[in-house]
Amino acid sequence: MANEHLTNLLNQVASHEITTEQAFKQLNQAGFIDLDYAKVDTDRQRRTGYSEVIYGEGKTTAQIIGIIQVMLTTNTNILVTRVSPKKAQKISRVYPKMVYLKKSRIMLWQQNIPEQTNNTIAIVTAGTSDLKIAEEAAVTAEAFGNRVSRIYDVGVAGIHRLFAELDAIRSATVVVVVAGMEGALASVIGGLVDKPVIAVPTSVGYGASFNGLSALLTMLNSCASGITVVNIDNGFGAGYSASQINHLVESEQ
């Protein structure tokens, strides 16, 4: 990896993408590169098996572009979450290979295509309004090489729809359940499957749902065993954790 990093740096200097001063600064940093506004973790892939992921919300377009520029020198895949269409358009002008997936609000550039798992992660939603967060989880998991099964709009208001999909859900290694309103779907699925369930409360619902707090508390207080809960609207976190579980199972088979 050190040789790859050095080669990429030299190529970027030769093509005038970065200056010699910037390259020198990168070579003198141990495990991270300081851009003043961000310290980009260039060692994360080696430590954890997953490269740095850029959280796009709250960052300017210029800051995101700067971080991408650094990550290109490490030859890792680049994943940017929570990117608005306006920012995505500007970033694409600089890096046309960055693909924008509007439903998930994710930008992705896979410099290295990961080997796909044999096992599957099931992403299940209560309703169509949860799709944005579900797609964030699904695309995150796929970016890390996981096979993903999308099972959408099977909430408890029409629970027969869930039963029609049970075989597909039960065949997955790990199940991500995305639900707003009262968040009951995670408990129902937790009582029907023998796999880990990662529950994602969403900020979908009427006034008393308190922007996802109601779903969060329901999931945290579930009487079904084996349910782990991530933060409100944290599709990325759920997809990342599901990927870790899926790859762990894959490595033991």
Task: Describe the protein's architecture and organization.
It comes from Lentilactobacillus raoultii. Pfam families: AIRC. This is Nickel pincer cofactor biosynthesis protein LarB. The chain is α/β, with parallel strands linked by helices. The chain folds into 2 domains: 2-109, no CATH class; 120-252, Rossmann fold. 40% of the residues lie in helices and 17% in strands. It has helices spanning 2-14, 20-27, 44-48, 61-72, 85-94, 131-143, 160-163, 166-170, 185-190, 213-220, 235-252, and strands at 32-34, 39-41, 54-55, 78-81, 99-101, 106-109, 120-125, 147-151, 174-179, 197-201, 227-229. The strands form 3 sheets. A 5-stranded parallel sheet has the order 8-7-9-10-11. The protein has a 4-stranded mixed sheet with strand order 3-4-6-5, sandwiched between helices. A two-stranded antiparallel sheet has the order 1-2. Strand 10, helix 10 and strand 11 (227-229) form a beta-alpha-beta unit. The longest helix is centred in the last third of the chain and has 18 residues, at 235-252. The mean pLDDT is 88.
Q: Concise description?
A:
The chain has 253 residues and is an alpha/beta fold.
Helix segment count?
A: 11
Structural class: alpha/beta
* Helical content class: 40-55%
Q: Please give the order of strands in the largest beta sheet.
A: 8-7-9-10-11
The CATH class label of the largest domain is Alpha Beta
Indicate the overall shape: elongated
Organism: Lentilactobacillus raoultii
Protein name: Nickel pincer cofactor biosynthesis protein LarB
Domain PurE: 119-251
State the main characteristics.
single chain; 253 residues; alpha/beta; Rossmann fold; 2 domains; 5-stranded parallel sheet; 4-stranded mixed sheet; 11 strands; P2CMN_synthase_LarB; PurE_dom; Nickel pincer cofactor biosynthesis protein LarB
